[in-house]
């Protein structure tokens, strides 16, 4: 446990973890809240000036978010229970429970349940999409595993239309609230293995934001099924963007699998797992449907 805490604090001190991610990981690695606070205070006292500034940002964030420990642990415990049968249905139940605790933390633990932190991370993802040239008034988007609809709501003024597909009923209900009144946004329950609500060759962008890890965790057949479906609904030379491929802990394994699957299923890899975001440590896989 102490090793896990030291590892998180070391990465944070080195500037490799944004404060929200560091705090969420610290809360998960500790036995109790007092132990986490003690470890952070200890690291701060020992740190050189630059690492100290980074650790102090985590300290300040925690002081501004007193419920961080309780929210992070409660939400994470809903997924921790899915350790035997990993299927879209069991993930749906876990995310139903997580969203009932905190919709914001359920889609992004590092938001610590705070709408303002989530909004700032969402804005960075939208900026990243804009920089990749995949948004525009003529673009139709599928957001797979759309959760509470935060990306859809942010994309609404920037695209022609967007469809959110989601396996969790509580998430879809939250998304309906957030996207109420946005006429170019539709929401559809999904099976987790297909994009049945979407027509073939009708979209310019398919997005998975932190949802693909649950596909990977459900097994290779589901991975192939989802990628085949993304290929089916995309127009030729259109894009598939996956923010985080898995939570297996090896970027190299993820890059290897993505390049192999892309070759087999008709995609060209434009970017293979780069971690360039500042408010979130997501790895970006940018693929183009060939032909
Ligand atoms: C961490 S949340 C991210 C939600 C959203 N993409 C966001 O970034 O705000 C992961 C979401 O993926 C959904 N999910 C998991 N497996 C899925 C699957 N096979 N198909 C569609 N959605 C899935 C979960 O229900 C959950 O809402």
Automatic annotation (TrEMBL):
Put simply, this protein is called Type 11 methyltransferase
> Which residues does UniProt call coiled coil?
none
GO terms of molecular function: methyltransferase activity
Instruction: Supply the InterPro entries for this chain.
Output: Methyltransf_25 (IPR041698), Methyltransf_Superfamily (IPR050508), SAM-dependent_MTases_sf (IPR029063)
Domain Methyltransferase positions: 141-236
The species is Chelatococcus reniformis
Q: Which GO BP terms sit in this record?
A: methylation
Tagged with keyword Cell cycle: no
Q: Which UniProt keywords apply?
A: Methyltransferase, Transferase
